[in-house]
Amino acid sequence: QVQLVESGGGLVQAGGSLRLSCAASGGTFSSYAMGWFRQAPGTEREFVAGISWSGYRTYNVDTVKGRFTISRDNAKNTVYLQMNSLKPEDTAVYYCAARAAFSYTTNREAWNYWGQGTQVTVSS
After folding, report:
1. Residue partners of 5: CB distance under 8 A and separation at least 6
2. Which residues are bridge partners to 120 per DSSP?
């Protein structure tokens, strides 16, 4: 059983930056693809970024390309989401997810473990 704990959320002005972290325990971290999802009020949870278990492959959805970067440190059992040039529409609860597979998928039903979420609020 893998436990995921996110941190780093908060309130930031538009144009600012935040770095989210997700610490994993209870499993072999390097055997899991990792991802970040987000959910704004009244919307479905959506895929934001993913990274393969080696860190070699990454993917960002179009709405965050050029602004968000996902990375991982397998020695620290941690995945990160660096968020730059934040916009009010990025406001959401951000969730870390783990998948017992080589790589990521945008299908949230295919992810095995979830964190509790961290709130990101971007003011205009």
Report:
1. 22, 23, 25, 115, 116
2. 10, 92
